[in-house]
Amino acid sequence: MIAKNLKPVYRMQSMFKQITDTIASVLKMVLLTKYPLSCPLKPISKELVLLGNGPSLKLFLQEKGDFMKGKDLMMVNYAAVSEAFSLHKPRYYLLLDPAFFQKEENIGKIFIPLAEKTGWDMCLFVPYWAKKIKAWQQALKGNSHIKLIFFNPVPVEGFDSFCHFCFDRQWGMPRPRNVLVAGLMLGIRCGFSTIYMTGADHSWLRELWVDEENVVHTDSAHFYDKKGAVTQATPYDMFFWMNNFAIAFRSYKQVERYARKKGVDIYNVTPGSYIDAFRRKNV
Q1: pTM recorded for the entire structure
Q2: What is the pLDDT of residues 6-52, one digit of tens each?
Q3: Bridge partner residues of 194 (DSSP)
């Protein structure tokens, strides 16, 4: 009886949150959204393989390389430091984390390898706010193959009809707490009818632990790590990490609803992935 009586309260709370999220999103877009640029490279197929950097990608590249033939590829973050980058020659590349553009050491870690290795036409997606930072752009200036595309990573939340209206106009996207959220939305924007997501382990819960001093550590692993997982102490508490995980998984649900509206099929082909928003497929 108590639970039944609380249902109207929950509905009212949900409605109030959607209203406040919608208003907050409008304010963010007014302040942050810029006119989006069109992508100069048209897809060569209707299918995109979005390659996350999770540890499972290593086995995928070894055993499922044929699956990628004839499909467009998108790589992200530090994938350019791997041998797979030059071998598979992605048509699209995505950088999102502010650290890539704001930290000087990343010029040598990511942008110089991108400039030196990329000998084919490739779109590099970067957030619009990074346009005002010149150092990373100078590192790419001598490579005419890399086409810079600036996009709006502005978080848009609230009523689905409102969000989809904004997504259609590229004013923002579901909160891109993880780079793959942005990758999926950009894949939809580029006109792909089917997107396969691999290397999207998202098994962060297994990688977190707390020591006797209540310091949270991560045992993070990527497909390009030659020495296995890297253990690092973090300055954040467990609430911070769990909240971030929740935001990322919620954004994937938002992406899936939008993809279905647009008639785009998204398949998670990552074995053991923690993402439950998309249909699974064995390839």
Answers
A1: 0.91
A2: 667 667 788 888 999 999 999 999 999 998 888 888 888 999 999 99
A3: 47, 265
